[in-house]
Amino acid sequence: MINTQQRDHHVSNSWRKRKVQDMVCSQNLTPLAGQKVYVQRSFTLESGVEMHNVPVAYMTWGTLSPRADNVIVVCHALSGSADVGDWWKPLLGAGQAFDTDQFFVICMNSLGSPYGTASPVTAKNGDPAEGWYGADFPSTTIRDDVRLHRSLLNELGVRRVAAVVGGSMGGMHALEWAYEGKDYVRCVVAIATCAHQGAWAIGWGETQRHAIYYDPKFHGGRYSLDDPPVGGLEAARMAALLTYRSRDAIEHRFSRQGYNDKEKGAAAKHMQKTQPPKIATPSSNPTFVVQSYLRYQAKKFTHRFDSNCYLALTHKLDSHDVARGRADTIADALALIEQPTLVLGIKSDGLYTFADQEELARSIPNAALREIVSEDGHDAFLIESRQINDTLKRFWNDHLQDMT
Fold it and tell me: Which of 389, 12, 399 is nearest to 167 (CA)?
């Protein structure tokens, strides 16, 4: 077996003998415990901008095989980190889809994310003396992430990837990985994603960004990390949360349940209020439970995320287009994908619709479309872990027989 731990130690500590965590300026957004960091000395973005001493945070499970070809690359969503166990734990471990007895599982954090890879909250060119990137962080794309992450796989000695799996933004990454070629990536799983970011999703992203722009503490992105524009980030997260769930799921969970009725039991969820609601303000108690839910989730989000990072990642989503520079049409670009591809869609998903998944399956020559049955909307790709786990295992049995 290849000793990746020894290689990781060399990668993480070779750059000027400087502690990698010193490259992150915010104490509240330091890399997650247990993850490793690789530093790419120089990296040229798709835009032509050259970055130096670029940290890439990642986590691994399992052992790389002697042939260095038992690798599953898992790609995280917009607000996720490299810790697959945090957001897809039921899929990770012996006997599961990401079987750590059979596979070397790796998840690499994306550029722009606040979880350790180069982003607005890391030091410019890896040098704390230059300060943090902040608003000066360059625009990055899904393709930039894939090229940077492949550099890390090369450093780890990976010769071939058995499968790439991702949902939402991670599904965009999975599609881009397919263009690395069938001799490098054997099969692809794209979940609740799209071939290009459409106007509906771009519009929602712009709405969320404007919530941040109009926060009086934003200052064009040049704010203090000690006093960031959390109000705008909270509003952006609230808007995003509504796109992650379906209308029916929100109605069934909350109905018009009043905030003061939440202790009265399940029956209160279906009570129809006859009194007009009071005017709500940010400091007042909410009238309805759904308001309380959104406020709580949004505030919790600001404890682990950064506004400039949110802007960087939503712009990255908008850049996604598999046809850019490859083909005249989306269908022609998807037709270039040669690997066996599993497409998973959710009929209640209003963000990346089932029609988006049908387009992928129709245009990729060797694709199969399967439904994740759920009324929960887009977030079902995280919620319905049992369905996804079972479907992936069947896909491995069909296309990775030599490893299962």
Answer: 389
Choice among 79, 113, 168, 348 that is catalytic: 168
Annotated catalytic residue 248? no
Please give the pLDDT value at position 284.
67
Cα(146)–Cα(162) distance, integer angstroms: 16
Q: How far apart are CA 40 and CA 135, in angstroms?
A: 22
Q: Residue 311 domain-assigned?
A: no
Domain region containing 28: 20-198+321-400
Query: Which CATH number do you get for residue 343?
Result: 3.40.50.1820
The catalytically annotated residue of 306, 378, 379, 399 is: 378
Does residue 229 fall inside a structural domain? no
User: What amino acid occupies position 381?
Assistant: F
Q: State the DSSP H helix or E strand holding residue 71, giving kind and residue range, or none if neither.
A: strand 71-75
- Is 127 among the catalytic positions? no
Distance CA 257, CA 200 (A): 30
Q: Does 97 reside within a domain?
A: yes
Spatial distance between the Cα atoms of 291 and 289, rounded to a whole number of angstroms: 5
Specify if 306 maps to a domain. Answer: no
pTM: 0.90
More confident residue, 253 or 265: 253
Three-state DSSP class for residue 38? strand
pLDDT per position as a tens digit, 326-335: 999 999 999 9
Instruction: Single out the catalytic residue among 83, 306, 318, 349.
Output: 349
pLDDT for 36: 95
Hey, is 131 helix, strand or coil?
Answer: coil
Does the annotation mark 399 as catalytic?
A: no
Q: What is the pLDDT of residue 32?
A: 77
Q: State the total domains in the chain.
A: 1
